[in-house]
Amino acid sequence: MILILPKHTMHTFDDLFIFEMANNHQGDVNHGIAIIQKMAEIAKKHKIKAGVKFQYRDLNTFIHPGYREDTTHKHISRFLSTELSADQFLTLVETCIKSELIPICTPFDEKSVDLIVQHKIDIIKVASCSADDWPLLEKIASTGKPVIASTGGLSLSMIDNLVTFFRNKGVNFAILHCVGIYPTPDEALNISFISKLRNRYKEITIGYSGHEQPDNYNVIQLASALGAKIFERHVGLPTDLIKLNGYSMNPDQVDMWVTSWTQSKTILGNNYKTILDIESDSLASLKRGVYVKRAIKKGQLINRGDVYFAMPRVDGQLTSGEYGRLRTVYTATKDYKIDEPILESPNIDTYLDVRDIIHQAKGMLDEANIVLNSNAQIELSHHYGLAKFYKFGCLIVNLVNREYCKKIIVVYPGQSHPEQKHIKKEETFHVLSGQLQLSLNGISRLMKVGDIVTIERGVLHAFSSTSGCVIEEVSTTHFRNDSFYTDETIAQQDPMQRKTIIESW
User: Fold this and answer.
1) What is the pTM of this model?
2) SS3 state at 411
3) Is 398 within a domain?
């Protein structure tokens, strides 16, 4: 199995691939080394961090003594015929490290967990059949190592139990959607369940462990599009004497599979809306410009009845969109003849700026699945003026202010809130979406979704967010004159100079 890890840290699971060797080493160390070397070639070709995953079983205790000679049980006979000693596995682990690959391992019993620790293997993988094996899970959790768990055959309530167990144990873990049919037909893959898992466990990395036909390269693209960040497949190396099973990939198929993922990443892009110059130019050529219907004198208001909209738009000409945007009003700076283009600069309107700020907040709240009453009072904090709002300030939704107070605070990407303190009010921040860099009396901490912190009276606090954040604030009664800023420029202002209040949005 190969594991592709992000370059910055091996404890982050994003864009991580697991290619599982399982028993495809055939009980032959040299054949196992050959598989590792082929995987290393693929890793170097695609410039990815990779690791080989093994399966550890202490067969002396794992298999009941009375069944060791039972040739009718396909798994028992397979495990015994491909058995490797601890030293032989260690040779494979050391080969991984020398090949700049990361060793990963699935244990099926408690003694195997001890061997993983002894071999200093980096990540523990939990097989679907062991995802409700609580004695084994207890042992795995005790190691403190990162864990990836497959969930084939587990009901949603059983997955909930597994997630709760790892959360309570403080384990750094991820979950893989998996179907335990070998090979899995298309109609049984249920790839859409990845979305269910991502929505249910928002802070947990979700991936996909596949057993579909090895030449099916569509599934990884679909899984990637649904937000999967981990991808697992069985891999092996066929020879004249060795034939792979129906769900294991040969090196050429592994290469094509990773290539397919790379293509999907290129197509998917990122979560940010990127507008290329070529796109802007293409759309601009289709926009309608504003033309004169009847002669207009300099200084005259350009009313709707004075103009018409048509293509092409020439350089410097107002577009129909710029002219018709909300409350924008234009005054002619020159005389215009019939059919001439209107060459006026788009107006800057504070009303429109405020609207843009509100619309972005609504979008962030929608992404976080936070539904608010449209009649809630909105407060824009702009400590250094509205023009610098996206750099300094925040948007506050005032919901309740009685003996207790509740607000929703939206911190925009790249925005900072200057340092202040309260004398009358004590408040608690609960991060609902994104990440928040919070400073308390000069000591900074990073808050993630679900984190809660109470800011006591008199504590200086400032906060910012790189990617944007939504916070729930619960406090004692809010008082208008109870914010004391360390920056004298802000402190000397009347509170209403740094606030814009909107009664509904």
Assistant:
1) 0.80
2) strand
3) yes
